[in-house]
Amino acid sequence: MTDLTADTAPLLVLAAGQRCGSTLVQRLLSSHPRVRIWGEHAGQLRQVLTARQRLLRWSETGGMAGRSELKSHGHQGFIANVMPERNHIDEAVLSFVEALFAVPARDEGRPVWGFKEVRYGLPDVLLLRELFPALRVVLVVRDPRDVLRSLDEWENLGGWNRARTDESLRNWHRVAGSFVGSDTDEHLRSFILRVRYEDLIRFSQAWLVAIADHCRLDAGLLDGGVFEQRVHTAGARGRADRRLREWSELPTSLRSLVDDEDLQMVASTYGYDLSNS
Predict the structure, then answer these.
(1) Domains along the sequence of the chain with CATH
(2) Which end of the chain, C or N, has fewer beta carbons within 10 A?
């Protein structure tokens, strides 16, 4: 397969759903003069990756038979399902991802590229790694109770409803659950760096260095000032001080969302005890 990213490999900033701190890490990495970390894209690459898998399967079954017929009989063969070989499929998908993310980053003079997303779990990462073997991942996880406290503000401000909060917490469960054990698996640890939001804030300088080292960047070129400037949404409101309700102040209907045994088990692997919530 042609290596279209020999100079750089994508940097993925992933999070277990909204309000986990992925934008903070995105801002940190984007402060490097050679890095562009694009924002969320609603998880749409998953459809591209799924299409690649299906095309590969088709190419290696009906497509292969079609290629055999074409080789043996030319246009007089049964070539209804003839398809290009898998290397051409991979190159097409690589070209799409590169054109979407890498090319505009390089046009800005930022050859190190990537994106942040809150919807991708480990299965998605492994599919991307088939195309980009040298990719690096920074995964941010946050106490789901604090995630709900932040989403509670969104609900109260309007434009966000309880159904979307439910969906976000289910996404937290799915994404965080998919990475359980990745911190003890030597292979996964070689390209996935996990960080809890709480630790990122408390030990920001140490984590700045750890993230830079993981992404093979010069820590001295990252702006640690991003930790001092909180930005929680777009516009002037995103920089204004805000007060989130304490966990005990949230309505029971919201707090009860963590009353799920499997979610609590996943949370416990990250050091969050939800058993008495």
Answers:
(1) 11-269 (3.40.50)
(2) N
